[in-house]
Amino acid sequence: MVALSGEIKEVFNKTKVMPMATASKSGVPNVAPMASIQLIADDTVWIMDNYMVKTLENLKENPVVALYFYDQETKRCFQVKGDTEIKTSGADYEKFRDQVKAKGHKYPAKSLIVIKITDVFECTPGKEAGKKVL
Ligand SMILES: Cc1cc2nc3c(=O)[nH]c(=O)nc-3n(C[C@H](O)[C@H](O)[C@H](O)COP(=O)(O)O)c2cc1C
Asked: What CATH number was assigned to the domain covering residues 6-122?
């Protein structure tokens, strides 16, 4: 696992919506926007499954994910990859469910996707693009 810090963490926390990429076992890609996202620890991201369909199906058969986050002001961009676990009960699920429901009762808060960060790459255009930073 790798821990976010400094600028990477700042850009993550500033980003309101992140594209979440998954793939089926046979390699069919999928990407969907996600906003119920929290960096709960430096190496762990929580995402609430409110309306996931293909994303959830993919995670059940291939539990890896990629996200990117981009800061319009500084133009910095980072990609994160990680391993996931799906939780539909327990203290972590209940904590995030209550937090999401406090924002709006309409959110179904079906399951918590826990992402353990395994890699971070630079996606800022330029000579560092694509380089593994963590
Ligand atoms: C700005 C925005 C934020 C969203 N945030 C979430 C989210 O945090 N959790 C979620 O389950 N769906 C969220 N959605 C809805 C999913 O992206 C949408 O249901 C999508 O169709 C799911 O795709 P899938 O079938 O590929 O899983 C959001 C949609 C938008 C446009």
From this structure: 2.30.110.10
**Measured between alpha carbons, how far is 38 from 19 in angstroms, rounded to an integer?**
14
Please list, residue by residue across 120-132, b when 16 or more beta carbons sit within 10 angstroms of its beta carbon and e when fewer do.
Answer: bbbbbeeeeeeee
Cα 9 to middle of ligand 1, angstroms: 23
Most ligand 1 atoms within 8 A of CB, residue of 51, 55, 115 to mutate: 51
Tokens 């799906």 correspond to what residue?
86
pTM for this structure? 0.97
Ligand 1, residues 52, 93, 100, 113: which to mutate, most atoms within 8 A of Cβ?
52
pLDDT digits (tens, 9 = 90+) for 51-94: 999 999 999 999 999 999 999 999 999 999 999 999 999 999 99
User: How buried is 96 (Cβ within 10 angstroms: 0-12 exposed, 13-18 middle, 19+ buried)?
Assistant: buried
Q: Hey, where are the domains in the chain?
A: 6-122
**Which ligand 1 atom sits nearest the alpha carbon of residue 51?**
11
